[in-house]
């Protein structure tokens, strides 16, 4: 990415967490101009003030009448499960057996992996998502395919090879030392290359032996800057299973901590059935939660307690969790997050919702110094939202009197149709036809 570019529109981003800063967390420029130089944010302010200062011939993308926000950040998604979205009728353990494992078997074929990765990255961009933390499969070629597709589009992608050496089909099981060696090779090949980052990826504690869990923890410790991603306390039956497999552990979370997998840049999806001791340990170690409301509802897993996580100081991002999750859309994910909190007797203010989808997600990934906002020097990833994308959305927006009302209408009524454009490093990566 090179040169100078500017984006004009109704620009919104967050300076911090609304839960801490209140109204001061949000910066809003109703007719704003975002200046991008060499892919990074070089300036932001009122368009009438900044336009006269631009050099002649500067490209200006004019999105007046539309909202411009930092690109959405999906902190938990399975690219290999793209083809099983909307598969009927199971909870998580049966879902794995019936749908996930047979589907992931196909990723032994590099051509299939590449085809799905291409679609997956395009679908993320079509929904305004510019950064994702994704599971591949046990096959190294599945990781290669995803990173190659993301690199071609200049996306920021965190991904890794799934580690499983027990309680899974033979066709997806690899020995602990084999998975370790393949992970090391993938780290060497991809971690830190352009905008790509590697995540050590034990699927979840039940599908790894203690030997593999120990090796995963060592990989995490021995390669500075890599991530670790897994699942935690999604389903009550799953929690009971872990207790039988690891009777020495105080809790499901304690299993991961015993094997050195808890710390900064470790991200655990779901965390529905954890207690205050677990939350305190996550906060103290800097581990993060990926809140996945659409899959928690679809798979009948339970209702995540966002308020208790917030009170404990746990880092939280949002995850679509496709394919247990039902949409690539972060707007639809926010829609379901709001409803989950209602069912818990809690509130999700619209400002905090969009914070979690942008700067909050970046913070949970320790990337808020690079993405998630329009602070000077950040990578200029952005999404353009059209408040008149559908007749109902246009009608509701027309009577909105505040920015919060307009954002809430997008959060509840919006989906992929509301995404007018997605830019990566300032450059258009997708535009609605």
Automatic annotation (TrEMBL):
InterPro entries: Amidohydro-rel, Guanine_deaminase, Metal-dep_hydrolase_composite, Metal_Hydrolase, Metallo-dep_hydrolases. It catalyses: guanine + H2O + H(+) = xanthine + NH4(+). Keywords: Hydrolase, Metal-binding, Zinc. Residues 67-426 form the Amidohydrolase-related domain. Its cofactor is Zn(2+). Binds 1 zinc ion per subunit. It is an enzyme of class 3 (hydrolase). Coiled coil: none annotated. GO terms for molecular function: guanine deaminase activity. Pathway: Purine metabolism; guanine degradation; xanthine from guanine: step 1/1. Its EC number is 3.5.4.3. It comes from the Bacteria. Belongs to the metallo-dependent hydrolases superfamily. ATZ/TRZ family. Catalyzes the hydrolytic deamination of guanine, producing xanthine and ammonia. NCBIfam families: guan_deamin, PRK09228.1. This is Guanine deaminase. It comes from Aromatoleum bremense.
């Amino acid at each position: 990415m090179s040169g100078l570019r500017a984006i004009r529109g109704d620009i919104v981003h967050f300076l911090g967490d609304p839960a801490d800063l209140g109204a001061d967390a949000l910066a809003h420029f109703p007719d704003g101009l975002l200046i991008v130089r060499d892919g990074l944010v070089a300036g932001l302010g009122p368009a009438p003030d900044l336009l006269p200062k631009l050099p002649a011939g500067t490209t200006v993308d004019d999105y007046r009448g539309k909202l411009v926000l930092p690109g959405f950040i999906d902190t938990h998604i399975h690219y290999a499960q793209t083809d099983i979205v909307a598969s009927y009728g199971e909870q998580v353990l049966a879902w794995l057996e019936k749908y996930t494992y047979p589907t992931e078997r196909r990723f032994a074929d590099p051509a299939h992996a590449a085809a799905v990765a291409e679609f997956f990255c395009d679908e993320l961009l079509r929904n305004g998502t510019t950064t994702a933390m994704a599971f591949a499969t046990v096959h190294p070629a599945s990781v290669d395919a995803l990173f190659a597709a993301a690199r071609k589009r200049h996306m920021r992608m965190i991904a890794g090879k799934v580690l499983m050496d027990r309680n899974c089909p033979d066709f997806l099981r690899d020995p602990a030392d084999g998975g370790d060696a393949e992970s090391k090779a993938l780290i060497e090949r991809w971690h830190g290359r352009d905008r790509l980052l590697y995540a050590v990826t034990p699927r979840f504690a039940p599908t790894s032996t203690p030997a593999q869990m120990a090796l995963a923890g060592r990989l995490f410790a021995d390669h500075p800057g890599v991530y670790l991603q897994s699942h935690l306390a999604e389903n009550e039956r799953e929690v009971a299973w872990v207790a039988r497999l690891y009777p020495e552990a105080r809790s499901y979370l304690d299993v991961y901590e015993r094997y050195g997998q808890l710390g900064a840049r470790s991200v655990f999806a779901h965390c529905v059935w954890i207690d205050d001791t677990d939350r305190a340990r996550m906060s103290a170690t800097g581990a993060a939660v990926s809140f996945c409301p659409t899959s928690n509802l679809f798979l009948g897993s339970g209702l995540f307690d966002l308020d208790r996580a917030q009170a404990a100081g746990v880092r939280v991002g949002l995850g679509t969790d496709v394919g247990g999750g039902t949409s690539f859309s972060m707007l639809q994910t926010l829609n379901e997050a709001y409803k989950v909190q209602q069912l818990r007797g809690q509130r999700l203010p619209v400002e905090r919702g969009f914070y979690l989808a942008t700067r909050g997600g970046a913070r949970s990934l320790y990337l808020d110094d690079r993405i998630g906002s329009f602070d000077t020097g950040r990578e200029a990833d952005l999404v353009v939202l059209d408040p008149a994308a559908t007749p109902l959305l246009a009608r509701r927006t027309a009577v909105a009197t505040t920015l919060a009302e307009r954002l809430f209408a997008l959060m509840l009524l919006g989906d992929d149709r509301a995404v007018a454009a997605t830019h990566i490093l300032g450059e258009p990566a997708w535009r609605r036809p």
